[in-house]
Amino acid sequence: MSSKQRLTVVPSRMTLQQVKAKLAGAKKGHSMLKKKSDALLVRFRAILSDILRNKEAAGEESREAMLALALAKYAFGDELKHVVIENVDDASMKVKMSPDNVAGVTIPVFSKFGARVTDADGNDSAGKGTASLAGLSKGGQQIGDARTAFADTLDLLVKLASLQTSFIILDEAIKLTNRRVNALENVVKPRLENTISYVLSELDEMEREEFFRLKLIQNKKEKARLAEQGEKLKEERKLALTGFDPAKFAGDDASKPSIIDAHTGADPDLLF
């Protein structure tokens, strides 16, 4: 979109004040959204580094857990799967979600709850029923190691899921915020600034037209005044040359001398 575009407005002082108020609001909104975008980007980069680190750790933990499971199966035998399934009543670990606020964006944080029961040796027991007695006759150590390894892997996967979800939400929020920042910076602000320039130029042109109109009126009045003064000056010169003053003959018509008498200077009483 071209930055030369402007709003279609009627140029006036009130319109100028309104557009200036809109421009001030756009600048303030642009500044706030820019700060929000920077804050989201900082958190986004921190989460990205945590995801990379946890993914590498999750791969290592998963490899160790599968190796521990293979050792447990080798020590206990093929009945391990059936023993585990028979002794599971309900989940010993559950996942809960708590919200976190980052610059106005709510992201979910997943965490495990539910006690992990450990035995005297520090190994993780199943926690309920007879699952803690699995492998008592043979392979108990390998089963306990496998249980601990998978519990650690589960903790890491829950944390990784929380980071991955936050990563996706922050990515969308950053894109949306950047679109708004770019729209304010490249479309709204230039359009308002061009509108202000247009209104100012139109107001200046109106002032110049008004000044020119006043000068024309003043010149016409001055010409009329000079013309009136010229007429008065002509009358005064004519009166000075002829000696005839029309103001003296404003009375009766009988007492008014004729134009000839006035020009010849003769007395009308002497003619009769």
UniProtKB/TrEMBL annotation:
<dbReference type="Pfam" id="PF01813">
    <property type="entry name" value="ATP-synt_D"/>
</dbReference>
<feature type="region of interest" description="Disordered">
    <location>
        <begin position="248"/>
        <end position="272"/>
    </location>
</feature>
<dbReference type="InterPro" id="IPR002699">
    <property type="entry name" value="V_ATPase_D"/>
</dbReference>
<dbReference type="GO" id="GO:0046961">
    <property type="term" value="F:proton-transporting ATPase activity, rotational mechanism"/>
</dbReference>
<keyword id="KW-0406">Ion transport</keyword>
<comment type="similarity">
    <text>Belongs to the V-ATPase D subunit family.</text>
</comment>
<protein>
    <submittedName>
        <fullName>V-type proton ATPase subunit D</fullName>
    </submittedName>
</protein>
<keyword id="KW-0813">Transport</keyword>
